């Protein structure tokens, strides 16, 4: 049955259609699929990722290990290590009864402005696909499915549910669908999630052309599922080939899928296809009556899991600059080490999304880890140097519930004025989300949610307080209403929830005990949320104290970067710059301290206006909850940074692909204005990147000696490209320590203007030694999509192959005839 089936087959048959299993096509609730006794299929739990297992109830008490972000894993250029990380999160899924994890994210950050770029691996489709497939392999080796997302062109967050990505067919095929194709060919994820947005005018969940590529061309045999609330038309989505609507209770699928088949609007074989795929998922995940649960490939101890995350973190660090070999630190020559920057004591591990993970076990901050690593003989002093750039949860500011217990009091009440408390609990968060039932109240009815927090101030102080949610929210201080926040627009409720959006007011708060209450009155809805935040005004200048400390120290480590709200689902940035306070801090410290080392805790390409004035720059991304120990080991020289950039760094915002363009009046984003993106943009536009895709230093140096290609390529069906092309490159370690280098290959077809990445090989080399790297070039990198004929072709003639150490490195040029 093809994805774009019509009703002709149903009309040709007089027999009543078989509707068995139709209930499987609609979700049960916010996190589970429906069961079917007749099909022997149990409920399957689908929980969000990919940075860890997200609580099904969005409960801060449900914890899991926080993994390195997609961009951090991309910086490792290490498929085996990424697969190990996938195994760890897969094991966490096994332990929590999860059938499938929503991840990885195989979209690509066309721009460093995209709010969700931290989840994505790389700006290059091949690197994204290889590492994404490795992650899928690791997860599924544990008997837990990967729900790979979001098909396709979902790389901007602005108006993501309504916007239209207009993408030329060749670009769509060669760039944006390519990572998904690699994952399907190499790892066969058990689920693929369709994106919210439209592609060339049609919503992805009802886009027959896109789903036809998956099912008909790639022969994909897994479940095609909507993004949450991503279906708005039963017949269109069913006929396009969608198999499952999430979340539940089902609105458009389930019983309505069966009704559409019975009415002749959807062919019966289309339903059979969906049911077959869902029962196959149940078989694969051990959720079929009479079946057997899959045996995990390997179950690791907690210590082993943390060791993998530590290795992944240190492997992800990219050393961008190391003037005078200031790193690793020579601890014997340092008496006082200054650590400054807000991210040293409160690092950022993830962006703001529905997939926020609460960390499992102890989390050691970079500051704590550095102190432990240098030992008692060296004085480590700390100043934040800048205030947090985002508002904070009330619990981070020392709030207590009315009974004095640390935290806040969360209550649920009926609609209206009654004070009958239906649910009451002290919680350690001040933002809450409920998909479906609200505790104590249920689903589909109006009600109220209330957060009460008490603070005790030694002196009068000035704070900015914020409140928001899915209904009308009010903020009261000591019983007096100071702010009312209207409900969000109906078409942006999910966006407001994802962004934890609030309105704020600055207030003078008196000395002594102060009560802060945020109350929200909501109407029936599929999701409800309430948020309370605050930002204290700084009493002293944190910058002055940090500069004074830096001037007195022998060396300075500055740890800056994003806060959790800096990168957010459903919102894009307006600049690639870090927050102004962080840039001011580095510039001011560099003026007084010659030995300044900057660690950037941001999982995206950022602007580095001060880089020429500091000794070292280490890109640390969002490296997972082992950030602190991994960073301390690298700074002290116990580990060497070996990561390479998975994204290009611009000099300024104006150099970003597609800068100055955006959604038009019809909410269409024309990709042509920013294509090609990434390193190909810099190569073709004449602009120079500050740091190129593939770039990275280490604690030793390397020299590319020579490179040669094989001359016996095998032409296959054009859709499968050219197999058998191998590059052998010799590289020598010209430094004094062991190191890991990553050799890269780029290919240019006859008549084309730029090179495209087609392969890589990481290699460890002892000091003073040389070694050969064997790079098997990507077969699909030698095909091109012919939009006129709607088919793949392989350009004939002489191809140029450049072997290099990054995208802007001239390297060594080889040629091969095809």
Top-tier CATH class of the largest domain:
Alpha Beta
Total number of distinct structural domains: 4
> How far from one another are the termini?
37 Å
**What is the CATH architecture annotation of the largest domain?**
Alpha-Beta Barrel
Mean pLDDT: 94
Q: Numbering strands along the chain, what is their spatial order in the largest sheet?
A: 10-27-26-25-11-13
Low-pLDDT sequence parts: 3-13
Helix segment tally: 18
List how many beta strands DSSP finds.
Answer: 39
Shape: globular
Structure, briefly:
The chain has 818 residues and is of the alpha/beta class. It has 18 helices and 39 strands.
Description:
The protein has 818 residues and is an alpha/beta fold. The chain has four domains: 278 residues, Glycoside hydrolase, family 3, N-terminal domain (TIM Barrel); 215 residues, Glycoside hydrolase family 3 C-terminal domain (Rossmann fold), CATH 3.40.50.1700; 145 residues, Jelly Rolls (Sandwich); 118 residues, Immunoglobulin-like, CATH 2.60.40. The chain has 18 helices and 39 strands. The chain has a six-stranded mixed β-sheet, with helices on both faces. The chain has a six-stranded antiparallel β-sheet with strand order 16-15-18-23-20-21, with no helix packed on it. Strand 7 and strand 8 form a beta hairpin. Helix 3 packs parallel to helix 4.
């Amino acid at each position: 049955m093809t994805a774009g089936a019509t009703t002709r087959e149903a009309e040709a048959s007089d027999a009543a259609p078989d509707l068995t299993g139709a209930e499987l096509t609609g979700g049960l609730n916010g996190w589970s699929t429906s069961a079917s006794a007749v099909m022997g299929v149990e409920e399957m739990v689908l929980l969000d990722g990919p940075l860890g297992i997200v609580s099904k109830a969005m409960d801060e008490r449900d914890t899991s290990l926080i993994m390195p972000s997609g961009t951090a894993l991309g910086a490792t250029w290490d498929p085996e290590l990424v697969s190990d990380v996938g195994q760890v999160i897969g094991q966490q899924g096994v332990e929590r009864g999860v059938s499938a994890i929503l991840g990885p994210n195989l979209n690509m950050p066309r721009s460093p402005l995209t709010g969700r770029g931290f989840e994505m691996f790389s700006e290059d489709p091949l690197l994204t696909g290889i590492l994404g497939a490795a992650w899928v392999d690791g997860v599924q080796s544990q008997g837990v499915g990967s729900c790979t997302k979001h098909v396709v062109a979902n790389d901007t967050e602005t108006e993501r549910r309504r916007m239209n990505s207009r993408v030329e067919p060749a670009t769509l095929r060669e760039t944006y669908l390519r990572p998904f194709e690699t994952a399907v060919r190499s790892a066969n994820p058990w689920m693929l999630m369709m994106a919210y947005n439209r592609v060339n005018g049609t919503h992805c969940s009802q886009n027959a052309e896109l789903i036809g590529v998956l099912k008909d061309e790639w022969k994909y045999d897994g479940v095609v599922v909507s993004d949450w609330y991503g279906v708005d038309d039963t017949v269109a989505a069913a006929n396009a080939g969608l198999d499952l609507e999430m979340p539940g209770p089902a609105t458009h699928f389930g019983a309505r899928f069966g009704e559409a088949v019975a009415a002749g609007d959807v062919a019966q074989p289309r339903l059979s296809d969906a049911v077959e795929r869902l029962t196959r998922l149940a078989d694969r995940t051990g959720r079929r009556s009479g079946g057997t649960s899959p045996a995990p490939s390997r179950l690791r101890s907690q210590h082993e899991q943390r060791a993998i995350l530590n290795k992944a973190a240190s492997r992800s660090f990219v050393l961008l600059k190391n003037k005078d070999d200031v790193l690793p630190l020579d601890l014997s020559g340092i008496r006082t080490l200054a650590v400054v920057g807000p991210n040293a004591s409160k690092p950022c591990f993830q962006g703001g999304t529905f997939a926020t993970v609460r960390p499992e076990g102890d989390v050691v901050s970079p500051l704590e880890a550095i102190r432990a690593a240098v030992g008692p003989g060296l004085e480590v002093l700390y100043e934040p140097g800048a205030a947090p750039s985002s508002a904070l949860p009330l619990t981070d500011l020392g709030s207590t519930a009315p009974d004095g217990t640390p935290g806040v009091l969360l209550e649920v009440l009926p609609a209206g004025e009654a004070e009958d408390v239906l649910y009451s609990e002290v919680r350690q968060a001040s933002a809450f989300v409920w998909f479906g039932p609200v505790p104590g109240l249920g689903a589909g009815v109006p009600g109220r949610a209330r957060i009460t927090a008490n603070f005790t101030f030694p002196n009068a102080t000035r704070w900015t307080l914020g409140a928001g949610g899915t209904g009308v929210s009010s903020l009261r201080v000591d019983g007096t209403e100071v702010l009312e926040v209207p409900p969000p627009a109906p078409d942006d409720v999910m966006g407001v929830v994802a962004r934890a959006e609030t309105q704020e007011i600055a207030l003078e708060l008196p000395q002594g005990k102060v009560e802060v209450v945020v109350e929200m009155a909501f109407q029936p809805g599929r999701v409800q949320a309430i948020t309370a935040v605050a930002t204290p005004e700084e009493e002293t200048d944190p910058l002055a104290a940090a500069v004074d400390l830096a001037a007195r120290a022998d060396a300075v480590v500055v740890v800056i970067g994003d806060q959790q709200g800096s990168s957010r689902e459903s919102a894009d940035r307006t600049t690639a710059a870090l927050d102004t306070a962080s840039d001011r801090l580095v510039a001011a410290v560099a003026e007084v301290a010659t030995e300044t080392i900057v660690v950037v805790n941001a999982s995206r390409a950022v602007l580095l206006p001060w880089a020429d004035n500091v000794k070292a720059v280490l890109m640390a991304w969002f490296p997972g909850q082992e950030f602190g120990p991994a960073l301390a080991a690298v700074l002290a020289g116990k580990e060497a940074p070996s990561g390479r950039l998975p994204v290009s760094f611009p000099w300024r915002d104006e150099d970003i692909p597609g800068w100055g363009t955006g959604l038009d009046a019809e909410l269409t984003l024309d990709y042509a204005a920013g294509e090609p993106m990434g390193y190909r943009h810099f190569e073709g536009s004449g602009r120079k990147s500050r740091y190129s895709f593939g770039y990275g230093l280490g604690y030793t140096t390397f020299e590319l000696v020579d490179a040669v290609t094989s001359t016996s390529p095998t032409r296959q069906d054009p859709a499968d490209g050219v197999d058998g092309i191998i590059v052998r490159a010799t590289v020598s370690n010209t430094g004094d320590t062991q190191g890991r280098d990553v050799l890269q290959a780029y290919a240019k077809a006859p008549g084309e203007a730029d090179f495209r990445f087609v392969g890589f090989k990481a290699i460890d080399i002892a000091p003073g030694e040389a070694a050969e790297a064997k790079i098997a070039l990507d077969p699909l990198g030698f095909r091109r999509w012919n939009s006129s004929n709607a088919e793949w072709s392989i350009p004939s003639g002489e191809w140029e192959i450049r072997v290099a150490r990054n995208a802007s490195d001239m390297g060594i040029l080889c040629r091969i005839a095809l």
